[in-house]
């Protein structure tokens, strides 16, 4: 190959390289905090509240999100392998997980926006709506119970499984009488059809059931739970979340690893702001910041005049 042809090929390569980089930069520059397109990965156990937030956000701004609902483990792996830039999870990142980002010189922006809970549910035919957390943990450790025929989880890699394994100090779920499906809806359906089974689901799926799930949710009991170190049984309600009496609480976070001022930053600000917190309040979860209420005081003559 002549020297001229070599220079020609090199010039063409440099031209294509810089044009590809230019197209990439244009794509990033077209996304702002309130405009553009982005993918958001969401822990499946809290999908309903994120769907509500996205719907209002997209209705207010020129933005479009693609929501990918997966197990906690899959969402976190997507952050680690850089296939996800924005994620919503039901816990904060651990020190070990933060070190992974630090090694890549990435500082995730983490925004806490709500307090959620994990609920125990049973078939409607079960008249006993009380359950002690120690009995559930004991069952997970192999202790049989007359109240519990089986525990039903959504996904072996889900945040609910991780939460309960940490409480029980177990590395793995027991092989017998513990069942896992793929989604919270499948758990609710199975429990509604099988007496004696205790389902473990995110509260968000009970407070905001889809139209197709309303009849199924109507056929289950949401159980009140006695904590390990507390007296009394408490239902998973906003009031009990706020007072900290419900024993199975967890915080919800938006993790933004985009590395630039994109929709991740805008969405996190929106969800943590007044409108986003009102959406959380309406969903049945507890907002991280309770929205303020404005009172209109009407001045006038309050004395009854005799005619």
UniProtKB/TrEMBL annotation:
The keyword Signal applies. Keywords: Signal. InterPro entries: PBP_domain, Phosphate_ABC_transporter. This is Phosphate ABC transporter substrate-binding protein (PhoT family). It comes from the Bacteria. The keyword Hydrolase does not apply. Transmembrane segments: none annotated.
């Amino acid at each position: 190959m002549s020297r001229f042809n070599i220079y020609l090929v090199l010039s063409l390569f440099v031209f294509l390289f810089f044009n590809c980089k230019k197209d990439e930069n244009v794509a990033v520059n077209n996304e702002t905090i309130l405009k553009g397109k982005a993918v958001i990965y969401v822990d499946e156990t809290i999908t309903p509240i994120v769907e509500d937030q996205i719907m209002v956000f997209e209705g207010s701004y020129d933005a479009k999100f693609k929501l990918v609902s997966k197990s906690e483990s899959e969402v976190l792996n997507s952050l680690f392998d850089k296939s996800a830039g924005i994620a919503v999870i039901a816990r904060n990142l651990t020190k070990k997980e933060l070190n992974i980002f630090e090694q890549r010189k990435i500082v995730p922006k983490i925004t806490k926006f709500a307090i959620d809970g994990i609920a125990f549910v049973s078939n409607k035919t079960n008249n006993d709506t009380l359950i002690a957390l120690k009995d559930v943990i004991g069952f997970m450790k192999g202790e049989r119970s007359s109240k519990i025929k089986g525990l039903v989880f959504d996904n072996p890699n889900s945040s609910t499984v991780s939460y309960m394994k940490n409480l029980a100090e177990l590395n793995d779920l027991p092989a017998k009488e513990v069942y896992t499906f793929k989604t919270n809806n499948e758990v609710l359906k199975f429990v509604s059809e099988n007496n004696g089974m205790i389902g473990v689901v995110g509260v968000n799926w009970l407070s905001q059931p889809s139209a197709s799930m309303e009849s199924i949710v109507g056929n289950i009991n949401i159980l009140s739970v006695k904590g390990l170190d507390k007296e009394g049984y408490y239902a998973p309600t906003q009031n009990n979340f706020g007072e900290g009496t419900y024993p199975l609480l967890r915080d919800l976070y938006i993790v933004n690893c985009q590395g630039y001022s994109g929709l991740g930053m805008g969405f996190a600000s929106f969800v943590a702001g007044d409108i986003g917190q009102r959406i959380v309040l309406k969903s049945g979860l507890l907002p991280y910041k309770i929205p303020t209420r404005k009172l209109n005081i009407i001045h006038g003559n309050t004395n009854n005049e005799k005619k």
